[in-house]
Structure formats: structure tokens, C-alpha cells
Amino acid sequence: MADFALRTLRVPLALREFTVSRERAIREFGVPEIALSLAIDLGLPNSGAHCPEFDRRDLRNLLLALRAPSPQFDVISAVAEALRKSEGAAAQLKRHVDLFLRCTKDHNGECDFQVLPDAPRERTVIERLNSRRFAAEAVLESGPRERLALTPEQRHSFDEIAHAQFFHLPFALTNDLGFFAESGLADCRLALKVLLTAARRNGAGIRPLAGLLVAPPAALTHSWIEVEAEGGWRVADPFYIRSLVGWGLLRSDEWPDDRIPKGVHWSLGGAHTPLALDHSTPQDAILIAR
Asked: Half-sphere exposure of 243 toward its Cβ, with a 13 Å CA cutoff?
């Protein structure tokens, strides 16, 4: 807990939004009351009022540090389980994700939602179920266990993030290489930038991908990479695999960072883009996988 408090305080106070009450932190986020009290004593930032409020990213990071049963930990546990189950004979896995949208009312007239606007249409089927609910379908591939045969340049690039610690970060820090150098903390976007920066410096064949991690009933936005190997491009996700091992959800002897993940990564393009647009304005979406 003390290590968590130190990591949390590396994020500038000005980048926080205190919007979650103590009651909601316990009831909705699943933070154990005793753990929340201890975190506050150790310096967990809050609004400081008579009824303090907390930053939702801080609470999500606290749950990761606790590794306690909670909605947050259930989601990443589902990802680890899906990765394990996607190993075996080569097969096509049909995946569905429902997207629930909210109108921002920042326009006149009706909403004009566009869902997954940059998804490759030859591999993604989108159906409108009602005015604010859409269903998307794609086929992912399972297969036997494989490891990448990394070049020395690729291996050196992977090692740049070998000791990075996963941390939910405010958007202002997701491209801040200086913050990473000082703190060792990264989310998937910042880890991707660190890795790609190293790859360009080393001349390694690595390129970015972004999309969803699909592990029913969960689906998460995510960024990962492809590695040039065997005359083509193969999926890799060294940062998140290491994170899942660190959380005790995958075994380190079975999941080295150069293992090829299968059946979970749904690519929507080479860069992180909005899940939906409403009159050209980016929109968030609630995701449910099935």
C-alpha cells in the first residue's frame, strides 16, 4: 500500500478530477472500506472536504494494487482467462461487442452516431439495434502457442518497457516520455510510445495497433504492436502481458513478453481513435462483449 501511495503521488495533483464520493468508491468501484481509509492516511489525494471525493483513476489504480475482487480486477482477469482459452488448434472466433452511447446534446436536432468510424469494413460488421445501441462483429484467430523470433533490435526495444509499471494515467500524461523516464509508470498508450520511440532509434521492425481487448463479458480500449517477423507482421503485446504476469493472472514461465497473444486483440487501425462520433464529435461508449 505504501508503494501504491508513492506511485500515485507522482501524478500531478492538478491533473485530477475529484468526482467520486467515498460511498460510491466502496459501493460501485468495490474498494474495501478499510483499504480506502489506509490509502487516505498514506496520502491518497482527495477533495479534502468534510465528505471527500476521489479521482476515479486513483481508485482504479488502488484496486489494481490490492488485486482484490472488484469490477476492475474482474475485467482484467477475464482478459487473462480469454488469452489462455484462445490457445489450441487454429480456429476462427466470432466476437460481438455491443456499444451503448449517450447523446451529449452539443448539437441541434437528432444525434448522428457513427460507430467505430475507422474500423476496416471488410473485417467488421456493424448493426444499429436502436437509436443509441449498436452491435459490432469481427472474427479473431485462435491457434497454438507461439513465440516471436525477435531480432536484437526488437529485443532491445521490448526491454525499454520491461520494468514499466501499469498505471491508469490522465490523458495529459499518455504521451509524456519525460514523465515515464522519471516515474516508470505507463498506461498502454504511453508504453506504446516508449516502445515505438526505442524501435525507431534501434531500427527495429515494429508498428502500432489500436482497438479493443475482447474477453466476454468485457471489452476494453487498448493499444499494442505488430512485429515484423517471418516475412510478415505478427501481433505482440509485451507491456500488457508483463502486466498480467505482475498481477498474478498469467504465469511468467508460460507467458514471456515475446509470446504471440491470440483470440483477444480486435484491431481497429494503427492509431487510437474514438469509438463513436456524433456530428463529428468524439463520443465515449459503454462496451459489453458477448
From this structure: 24
What band does 87 get if pLDDT is binned at 50, 70 and 90?
Answer: confident
Which pairs from 281-285 meet CB under 8 Å and 24+ separation?
Answer: 281/104, 281/106, 281/107, 283/101, 283/102, 283/104, 283/113, 284/102, 285/99, 285/100, 285/101, 285/115
Give the helix/strand (H/E) hosting 192.
Answer: helix 188-202
Q: Is the pTM of this model over 0.85?
A: yes
* Overall average pLDDT of the 178-190 stretch: 97
The alpha carbon of 176 is separated from its chain's Cα centroid by a whole number of angstroms, namely 17
Q: Which of 11, 44, 68 is the last residue of a domain?
A: 68
Q: Is 218 exposed, middle or buried (0-12, 13-18, 19+ CB in 10 A)?
A: buried
Pair 83, 216 in one domain: yes
CA distance 117 to 268: 9
The bridge status of strand 185-186 relative to strand 165-166 is parallel
Task: Reply yes or no on whether the pLDDT at 25 is more than 90.
Answer: yes
Q: Which of 68, 101, 118 is the last residue of a domain?
A: 68
Residues 164 and 51 in one domain: no
